[in-house]
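Team,

Forwarding the record for the chain on the shared tracking sheet. I've put the sequence and predicted structure together so nobody has to dig through attachments.
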Amino acid sequence: MTIRLTQQQRRLLAYSIPVLAVFAALLFGAVMLILLGANPIEGYGEMIIGAFGSGDALIATILKATPLLFVGVGIVIAFRANVINIGAEGQMVLGGLFSTMAALYLPEMPSFLMITAVLIAGVIGGGLWGWIPGWLKAYFQVNEILSTIMLNIVAVQLMSYLLRGSADRSRRDRSRYSHSPNCSTRRIGGPSAPLWERSFTHRSPSCSPMRDCGVLPPVAHTVRFPIAGRRPL
């Protein structure tokens, strides 16, 4: 039996489904809180206060929600083309990495041009990561669900490698130079470092703030690393 809906009914259904989904999520969360012995009204109240209760909370909410909103808009385009894109996480990570590289390599650029360059770099990074499963689908009939999920893992591990690599190099340099009277002559991400690490440790060609035993000067001063021209706390 086929149910035919009028145009008005379809429009009403399109608007009501998201609202019902939100209420269903809140109801499920309330049940979980009750099972845990908590008051759901107080819990949701604290959640609202934490998200919108102050200017700082509102800014933090916007900062966390904006990338997700952009990702959602991008996913809609894929769904409109009848392509199931599960790789939003990896594409967002690569976009963030490209944006970070653009910001670090262009420190002297005027702010309005810097913002534009960072946004363009993020679009390029996420687009390139999304192009890979599209190319595999078009030429080799690789299932886009599997390829995008696996590329999520690759992107996250790549980001972890870059962060962990810089941290490991920082620890090695601190261990090697922490007892030197001229510790600040050592710079993290020097000529021997890989290109990707130099991208995330240099903020300008002339002077890298990530110096002084591999950490920022205030941090080195706080943790009592001897730095040239300064006394530990």
